[in-house]
């Protein structure tokens, strides 16, 4: 069946690293927004955005979480831009096995930016008074493959678990849990 | 968390909920611990002295600007309680690791650093870090632990060598006043590194976030609408935005140069302005903020031939002005001073004091053997000697008061800018200002900028301007403050020194001080609260933040009472260490025109207002009213108070009549 093309507002956060003051308010409010119940706690380690900071080298890069990568990349190159040395990881938006970024600190499950669905703008943008984060919206024709947001999160989580423990084990556990019900 | 450095033991102790209610946190609970556990006989460099790092009550919550670490101990310089504060990222990280405080006691036989990573706490060898700079140490520890996100508070050479004005450096901030870095060095602790990945919870989240939104909205509004009629650094929020501002006419022409001696009224020429602007533009890489704050009060500074470092507000000018030099020199020497870890107010004045003694023949060529001829080089040379405690540096490392005592030969006349043995802001003014007189005299923070704020520093010339100002002055605790300000004139009957009246002055000073003490318990930056005019945090919304955040039911009266409680406790600690009315005075030459009778009246009235007796000692009635019965009992036992509460004030009178 031919998938239907649909018009959709695509949102992204434009990063202006030159304006970043390194305060990490974006990390804090992101983690607070995604706490359950909402705002009940905060912990930048759970944030879906992070500021890669090395003040003395003038490195301030806010990055928000993209898709989960099963394998770590083969790259890990160093780049020199304007005399400053960056690790490739500094720009990367994925959570992957080789680093702790964009993972729940206790479960290790990957996190992905959802643009604070339901809010007029992502809260990191709202809290960034220095203008380093700016919301951009544009209309795009996209294939309607949209999965409800929470299903998508569940899928990412399950994928990560399957990656870690093997799909067989996950199936066994799900089967056992279903029996209990 | 309690660490005994002598035994190498680490103990986790639950925070006392009742004490949190009574003293809030940060400074308040620090004061309680110091009162309980450090008796007055304990010397600052005794193993029994405590060094307490405390996060404020709101640190780690989303409340914008609540980032302050409050470090408390007994100061080697004043021998009184020191409670220096630093911004940056340390306190929130400590909260995320699961701790409110780190209490250090004892002394480590070898140089160590602490590594706090959530539950895991280690005392680690730091012998390879001996002599390293404070900023350098931070980098080395992060690398060694492979923890780029750890926050590190460290001392430099000055702290290791127990220089009386050594600081603790961290991120883009430092805890500088009172020589707490010397106590850290004395305990054999080079640094504390902390990394936390735990949750910080809120009692009533939705309500709390609503309050945060209001504060952010207010900050945006104030940034777009600076207050008219006051100088640029007072017109907005944040601690004075020194790193952003190029126009230094006001500081360079109104503050004193050298050893706080000379005012250069026509200093700021076009040529100087151009040259300084160019220097600052080249040196400043980026404006920086502390954790969760949009105010950008600090900056990364890079001077050719020197490593990059981070600078906070006023050290931009202190070295420059002490040496009669230019901004280029100031930014260069501040880099080295930051690595050494020294207080940016005391250090330049101590060096200028040393040179003034030399120029006046009190220090000789023998004392200064090897000193270069070039003025700027002399400052670098003195700084190096002081932090190593070499030759004359060993004497100057004790600060102007104690150095003068050791040198003798009339040197004490040159240590002229002290309050309670501590170097003050290099300011000398003409006519006594009664509000500032009270703040200078009775403040215990050893720094006037940490007591002032809220109430305009001077009257506005026109009534219409004043009416405009009070229109949206929501921060006043009571409407009467508006009237005080409306009636305040530049000249005539309602002008300084007899207006504001003695009673009004007490009221105004009490408000200003109260706000600072609240900030220091909550860990809030004064730059968003007690220091600027019309800040986003004030007595009306603070109780809501505390209730919704910490779940302690709070209202304005209860909060004011709590602040009064631990403010009185700080005084009690110092009273027990011998401080009295005679110590409550500004530097002798701070104002040219003095009014001795009025000054005595101001002190008498303020002490009465605070519930202290005539010798500046809190009375038993006051202490009991504040649930500080244990202080009253101690005072009676020691004979500081007697059953006849007037007794000690009679003693003062007798003293005065001698």
From TrEMBL, chain A:
SUPFAM superfamilies in the record: 4Fe-4S ferredoxins
InterPro entries: 4Fe4S_Fe-S-bd (IPR017896)
Chain ranges of the 4Fe-4S ferredoxin-type domain: 11-42
Superkingdom per UniProt: Bacteria
Protein name (Swiss-Prot/TrEMBL): 4Fe-4S ferredoxin, iron-sulfur binding protein
């Amino acid at each position: 069946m031919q998938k239907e093309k649909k018009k959709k507002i695509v949102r992204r956060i434009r990063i202006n690293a030159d304006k970043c003051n390194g305060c990490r308010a974006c990390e804090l409010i992101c983690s607070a927004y995604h706490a359950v119940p909402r705002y009940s706690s905060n912990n930048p380690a759970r944030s879906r955005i992070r500021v890669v900071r090395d003040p003395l080298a003038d490195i301030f890069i806010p990055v928000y979480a993209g898709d989960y990568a099963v394998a770590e990349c083969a790259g890990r190159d160093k780049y020199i831009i304007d005399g400053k040395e960056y690790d490739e990881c500094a720009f990367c938006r994925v959570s992957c096995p080789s680093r702790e970024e964009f993972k729940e600190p206790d479960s290790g499950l990957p996190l992905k930016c959802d643009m604070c669905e339901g809010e007029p703008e992502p809260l990191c943008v709202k809290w960034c008074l220095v203008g380093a984060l700016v919301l951009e919206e544009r209309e795009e024709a996209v294939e309607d493959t949209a999965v409800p947001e929470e299903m998508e999160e569940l899928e990412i989580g399950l994928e990560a678990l399957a990656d870690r423990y093997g799909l067989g084990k996950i199936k066994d556990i799900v089967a056992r849990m279903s029996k209990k019900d | 968390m309690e660490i005994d450095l002598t035994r190498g033991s680490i103990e986790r102790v639950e925070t006392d909920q009742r004490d949190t209610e009574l003293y809030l946190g940060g400074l308040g609970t620090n004061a309680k611990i110091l009162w309980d556990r450090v008796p007055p006989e304990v010397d600052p460099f005794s193993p029994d002295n405590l060094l307490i790092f405390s996060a404020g009550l709101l640190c780690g919550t989303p409340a914008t600007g609540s980032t302050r670490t409050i470090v408390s101990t007994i100061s080697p310089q004043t021998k009184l309680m020191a409670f220096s504060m630093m911004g940056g990222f340390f306190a929130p990280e400590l909260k995320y690791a699961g701790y409110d405080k780190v209490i250090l006691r004892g002394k480590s036989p070898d140089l160590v650093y602490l590594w706090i990573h959530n539950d895991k706490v280690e005392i680690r060898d730091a012998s390879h870090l001996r002599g390293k700079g404070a900023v350098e140490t931070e980098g080395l520890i992060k690398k060694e632990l492979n923890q780029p996100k750890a926050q590190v508070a460290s001392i430099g050479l000055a702290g290791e060598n127990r220089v009386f004005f050594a600081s603790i450096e961290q991120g883009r901030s430092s805890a500088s006043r009172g020589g707490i870095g010397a106590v850290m060095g004395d305990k054999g602790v080079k640094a504390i590194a902390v990394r936390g990945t735990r949750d910080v919870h809120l009692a009533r989240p939705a309500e709390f976030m609503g309050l945060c939104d209001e504060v952010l909205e207010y900050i945006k509004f104030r940034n777009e609408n600076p207050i008219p009629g006051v100088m640029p650094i007072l017109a907005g929020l944040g601690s004075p935005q020194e790193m952003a501002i190029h126009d230094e006419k006001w500081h360079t022409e109104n503050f004193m140069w050298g050893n706080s001696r000379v005012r250069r009224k026509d200093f700021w020429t076009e040529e100087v302005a151009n040259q300084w602007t160019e220097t600052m533009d080249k040196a400043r890489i980026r404006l920086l903020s502390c954790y969760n704050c949009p105010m950008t009060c600090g900056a990364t500074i890079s001077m050719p031939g020197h490593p990059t470092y981070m600078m906070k507000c006023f050290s931009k000018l202190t070295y420059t002005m002490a040496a009669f030099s230019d901004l280029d020199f100031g930014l260069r020497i501040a880099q080295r001073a930051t690595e050494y870890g020294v207080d940016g107010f005391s250090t330049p004045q101590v060096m200028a004091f040393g040179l003034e003694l030399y120029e006046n023949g009190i220090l000789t060529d023998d004392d200064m053997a090897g000193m270069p001829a070039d003025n700027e080089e002399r400052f670098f040379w003195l700084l190096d000697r002081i932090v190593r405690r070499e030759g004359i540096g060993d004497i100057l490392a004790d600060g102007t008061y104690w150095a003068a005592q050791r040198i003798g030969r009339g040197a004490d006349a040159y240590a002229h800018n002290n309050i309670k043995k501590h170097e003050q802001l290099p300011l000398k003014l003409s006519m006594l200002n009664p509000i500032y007189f009270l703040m200078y005299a009775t403040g215990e923070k050893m720094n006037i900028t940490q007591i002032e704020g809220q109430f305009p520093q001077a009257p506005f010339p026109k009534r219409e301007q004043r009416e405009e100002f009070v229109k949206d002055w929501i921060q006043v605790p009571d409407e009467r403050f508006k009237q005080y300000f409306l009636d305040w004139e530049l000249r005539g009957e309602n002008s300084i020194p007899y207006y504001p009246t003695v009673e009004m002055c007490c009221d105004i000073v009490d408000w200003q001080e109260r706000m600072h003490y609240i900030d220091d318990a909550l860990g809030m930056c004064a730059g968003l609260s007690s220091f600027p005019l019309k800040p986003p945090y004030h007595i009306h919304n603070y109780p809501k933040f505390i209730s919704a955040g910490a779940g302690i039911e709070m209202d304005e009266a209860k909060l004011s009472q709590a602040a009064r409680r631990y403010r009185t406790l700080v005084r009690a600690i110092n009273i027990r260490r011998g401080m009295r009315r005679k110590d409550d005075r500004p530097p002798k030459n701070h104002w040219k025109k003095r009014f001795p009778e009025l000054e005595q009246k101001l002190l008498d009235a303020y002490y009465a207002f605070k519930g202290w007796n005539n010798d500046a000692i809190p009375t038993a009635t006051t202490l009991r009213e504040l649930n500080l019965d244990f202080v009253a009992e101690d005072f009676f036992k020691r004979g500081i108070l007697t059953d006849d509460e007037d007794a000690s004030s009679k003693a003062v009178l007798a003293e005065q009549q001698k």
